[in-house]
Structure formats: C-alpha cells, structure tokens
Amino acid sequence: MKKNKSKNSKGIVVALKANFLIVEIDYKDLKDNLLDQFHEKIRLLCTRRSKLDYQGLFIDVGDVVFVESIDYKNTRAVISDVEPRKSFLKRPAVANVTLVAICISVDQPLFDDEQASRFLLTAECANIKPLIVLTKIDLITKCDLRLYVNKLKSWGYDCIPLSIYNSEGIDTLLEQFRKTKLTVLAGPSGVGKTSLINHLIPTVSLPTSSVSKKLKRGIHTTRHVELFAIGNGSLLADTPGFNRPEIVCEPSELAFLFPEFRIELSKSRCKFRNCLHRDEPGCVIKKDLERYLFYRENIEEIINSHLPYQAG
C-alpha cells in the first residue's frame, strides 16, 4: 500500500503515547479504493515536524492537526501543522474543550464542598462551561439527594444526578454529551468516571478499581487522557483523577469565578474599584453566602503567592 501524498489530512489528537501522538482522521473524502479495509475513522501513530518545536507549538489531546506522509499500511503519519485552539484546559491538559463534566460522588467518597469548588473554579478559570454530575446517588436517600441539588443551585449550578447501578440519569447525560463537540470528564479519583465511560461506551472496557476503605478515597486507574466517540461527531475524554486542583488566577479575578458572586456584582458595584471583597467598606458581596469562607481562604492564599519574595 502506497503513502497518500496528494494532500494533508485534518484530524484530531485523541491520545498521547510516549513520544508519539495518536491522531484520528476521517478519510471519507479520499479517493483511494485501498481504504475499504477501514471504517469511517482511522487512528494514526504520528510524530511531529521539528519546525513545530522551533515555533514553540505544543500539541495536546484535543488539538486539531494536519498530517502528511500517511502510511495507511502501518497506520503512521507526520503532523505538519496545528490549528489555533478555541479553548484549553490546563489540568487535565485538553484542547478545544466545549464542556467540562465534573463528576462528584455523593458517597464513597463523600461529597466534599471544597474539592467540588476547586474543580468548578478550574473550568470557570478556563472560561469553559461546567456541568456537575452527581454520581452514586443509589447510595443515599432521595431527601439527601435533594439537599445536594439545592446546595449546587445556591452556588449557581444545575446538575445531573445519576447512578450506574440502576441507570438513573444516564439517558439525560448521554443526550447532553451528544450535543457537545468535546466533553472532558473531570473529578477526583474514585467517583466513577471510568465506570461511567464503560457504561456509556461498552466496547471500551477500561480498567477500574474500588475506593480504598482505609483512605476513603479513590485509587488512580486512568493514567492518561484519551478521547472516545460518544455520538455523531461528539467526543468524550477520560482523564486521570486528582484530588486538589490548583487555583491559578489574579486576585482581582477570583470573585468572578463564582456564579453567586457574579450575580451580586451585576446588581450593584462595590465602593472601591479594586475591592477584593474581604473587609473593604462598601463591598456588595454578602458574607453569609455558603462559599464565602472558601473564597476568603483562597483569596488570602492567592494574594500571598503574589507578594514579592523578601530574604530574611
């Protein structure tokens, strides 16, 4: 089988493997009868042109790239160029994300306000729409579930409660994913992200593990980011679990990452333009909001991290 040199083909990076990138391309428009052995998509093991390194262009999962020197027999190619990103999530590193589905379990491990907030701020900081997925709802009562749903509404978020055990909420979530170009599943270890993908896409069969009874938290099973097809043109990314996302932003930006704070600030203005909503007079942020203490702790941490270093 000969290499196709007629034109570059556009594809998307679906995984990283050592020093290689796995790129999925659509060959439907290519005029080559030798391609009948493939289905609609081909995954190619790719290297990258050295010019991309000289240009300082990093390539991550989710990047749209152009490949050339395609060897269909050995499913290999070379990445020659990369399109500008529309969005980028730093951790996990995924480009062109349109939705972040943050999975938080209500039990085993127990829902953690601070942890959930940190994942939400990560999405807000990247200006990517977040969706909260409450997992393992079969482990709690309907009354307790209602409390969690109301809590999240007070934060300014809707959520989709679901259970893999009885499939409750699965159809609603699947419909949401299929309306989205690229969804990232994020969240702590042990909340059921990989199990959810196995339930939504049975052909994948990713390895899973149970929650550690001693540590009361999940054990990492996903080691890298990979994209899976979830519908016609829709992709879903499984990501490694991590338990404490870092909040990286300027002190003046932090309040605007909280929907409930944004509502207060849209109604009226603080007395001072540089108000950080701590103890400044004329601040319009209500100090009795549920997440205000979390904000206060983190604004202090961010301010301290911005202070110049002084030798003792």
Main β sheet profile: 6 strands, mixed
The rough form would be described as globular
Helical content class? 10-25%
Count of distinct strands: 13
Beta-strand residue percentage: 15-25%
Quaternary class: single chain
Strand order of the largest sheet: 10-9-8-11-13-12
Question: What's the order of the H and E elements?
Answer: EEEHEEEEEHEHEHEHEEHH
Number of helix segments?
A: 7
Residue stretches low in confidence (pLDDT < 50, at least 5 long) are 1-6, 211-222
Q: Measure the end-to-end span.
A: 69 Å
- Mean of pLDDT: 86
Round the Cα radius of gyration to an integer and report it. 22 Å
Helix and strand content put the structural class at alpha/beta
What would you say this structure looks like, in words?
- The chain is α/β, with parallel strands linked by helices and 312 residues long.
- The chain has seven helices and 13 strands.
- It has helices at 50-54, 113-125, 142-155, 170-178, 193-200, 259-267, 292-306, and strands at 9-17, 20-26, 41-48, 64-71, 76-82, 88-89, 94-95, 99-105, 130-135, 159-161, 182-186, 226-229, 235-238.
- The strands form three sheets. The protein has a six-stranded mixed beta sheet with strand order 10-9-8-11-13-12, sandwiched between helices. The protein has a five-stranded mixed barrel with strand order 1-2-3-5-4.
- β6 (88-89) and β7 (94-95) form a beta hairpin.
- It is globular and about 70 Å long.
- The protein starts with 8 loop residues before the first strand and ends in a 6-residue tail after the last helix.
- Residues 1-6 and 211-222 have low confidence and may be disordered.
